Amino acid sequence: MSDEKKIEEELQKKQKFSIAGAIGRAGGGGMLKGASPIPRLAQARNQLIEIVKQQCPDTSGALKSILGRRIKNSTPLIEKHLDNPKEALVTILQTILNSDTMLYEFVRQVDMRWGEMYQERPHFQQPGQPPHQDDEYTHTSVKEDLATLLQRVQKS
What we know:
single chain, mainly alpha, 8 helices, elongated
């Protein structure tokens, strides 16, 4: 037995037992080698949120924030696409883009988030009405940004 191994055993004898310590020793001994300690669902969610952060054309960040929330709340959809999480993101984006009602509600949530972030009163565009001149997130602009993101995701 090597000196290193003897020292390790000596130290372990002097330590109180803890679950965290046992898991740490098991991980170091090879039980967890090759496997990520992060569950696949969390990995998929994080991957999609990172794609949104990198690919979504949104300088103020409210659109990315609300899309991140939508991803976090789409557990069943992401679980269905664990082998290819981008498909879940494509479905989320298509669902919003294919329904004016869903788009208008999504834009309202983005406007609310913008107001929270910048501590200003948001401008809510009403369906069929022109947007306020200072409204950063209009029905048209958000639809274009989501369509751009969708194209980028489908190409990658």
